[in-house]
Amino acid sequence: MLTNGTELNMKNKVDQKGMSGKIFFLIFLFLFSGSNASYGREVSRMELEKVTDLIMSPGCNYVYTLTNCPSPQADQMRELVKDRIKKGESTEEILSYFEDVYGLKILAQPSKKGFYFIAWWFPYFLIL
Questions:
Q1: Is position 90 within any domain?
Q2: 85, 48 in Cβ contact below 8 A?
Q3: Among 36, 76, 108, 128, which is least packed by CB within 10 angstroms?
């Protein structure tokens, strides 16, 4: 027969083992819960330029695309594009973000929707 002291010691050991398992699980969960497999991957230069060729650089007065602009602001914007690609965002999502922040002038190509589509193609229809 176990005495109350021995019984309490055994119960404390069982509780400590259960607690250390819970702590290990929480640490594991904390370390790996927010990880995304695509976030850690490298972005190729070609993949980055595919997107940065479509964005005009405010640092170069919207004359050059992000790919060709040597300004520090363009460097920061290229890093932002790279981070968004790493997170798995599509080209359209990235362009939409920059359009929301800077307006339509940030796009190297006009929007293919509504008035902008008509305004872009109307001169060609006049020639025909």
A1: yes
A2: yes
A3: 128
